[in-house]
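note to self — DONT lose this again. spent like an hour looking for the file last time. sequence + predicted structure for the chain T wanted, 177 res
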Amino acid sequence: MNHGVAMGPPLSPPTPIRIGNGTHRFELKARCSLTPRTARTFIASMALGTFGVSGFFALQGFWPVLPFAGAEIALLTWAVRASMRKGQERETITITEESVLIERLTMQNEHRSVFPRHWAKVKLHAPATALHPSRLTLESSGRACEVGRFLTEDERRGLAVRLQQLVGNVNESPALR
């Protein structure tokens, strides 16, 4: 029984978009609840509260609190910006009759991996400890590419099942439905 924990409905695993000619595409993106406007509003409200309290104490003669308040807001701004940049990550997995193409787009670079579908293998690696997430990889010919790092555990498991259905086992290429 969960006391005090509000649990929403489980998130559904990513579903493929059927492009035609037996081609399926998964478009994965990180969940980011903040928009640039709400991020600015959040930082402004935190700065108002922080500088209000620190200003009160500065007027009482405790002026050294002001630099710490400024450092706190600067650190908060940096953390929110880093979180929003991470929220821009995208992964696209395209499965055709011949190949599996993985494209990863981050703010720093773009990475592409192509695996022959007939030899590709989908693996969901169990976490090393209970506090770490599982890892979902596509592997072939000694190469591996991790996908869905920003997905929840349920989404990652659902994606693994769907990819397994579409990619199949080594030496087995099921019909793309």
